[in-house]
Amino acid sequence: MTDKDFIKSLVEEKLKESDSFLVEISVDPDNRIVVEIDNDSGVSIDECVVMSRYIEECLDREKEDFELEVGSSGLTSPFKTVRQYVKNLGKEVEMLLKNGTKLTGILKAADGQCATITVGKKVKADGSKRKTTVREDQAYSYDEIKYTKYLIGF
User: What does the alpha-carbon distance between residue 44 and residue 132 come to, in Å, rounded to a whole number?
Assistant: First the structure.
């Protein structure tokens, strides 16, 4: 089986030349290698082809056969890195917490520790008959988040 750390070092070395970043690498027992990259402005098919050819040149099929897939992070795929959170600041997202709570709101902040989402809550003010929407920032550590993904609106 191909060494995942070796593939990671190849990808990171090649990405130094671009604005793209590594999202995830997986190598399954059948030696199927999947490399997922992303970019703040989107990844082109040409970038995926260049990366695929680079990896293939560095691996020896005579020594070990493999299947290689290089792709970009899908628009509806859950975020897997802090950089993907940062890329989507100011955009509407869906966040599912590990406790089962599902939130929809604007991704306000993200750092190495947590992500902050601005959600709208219906609150009934004292003396009022109707509920009004109040915006509230809620911060969650990445350990509390099951997934976060970009919400496509129509």
Answer: 44
- DSSP-assigned letter for residue 6: H
Q: Write out the two tokens for 142.
A: 């990445």
Kindly state the percentage of the chain with pLDDT values over 70: 99
Is the pLDDT reported for residue 134 higher than 90?
Answer: no
Strand partners, 119: 105, 136
CB contact set of 109 (below 8 Å; sequence gap of 6+)? 89, 115, 116, 139
Partners of 114 in the β-ladder: 141
- The residue-averaged pLDDT of 45-57 equals 94
Dig out the tokens for 14 from the structure.
């090649």
**pLDDT reported for residue 1:** 65
How far is 152 from 27, CA to CA, in rounded Å?
30
Task: List all residues 6 or more positions away from 95 whose beta carbon is below 8 Å from its beta carbon.
Answer: 102, 103, 104, 105, 115, 117, 140, 145, 147, 148
Single-letter amino acid, residue 43: V
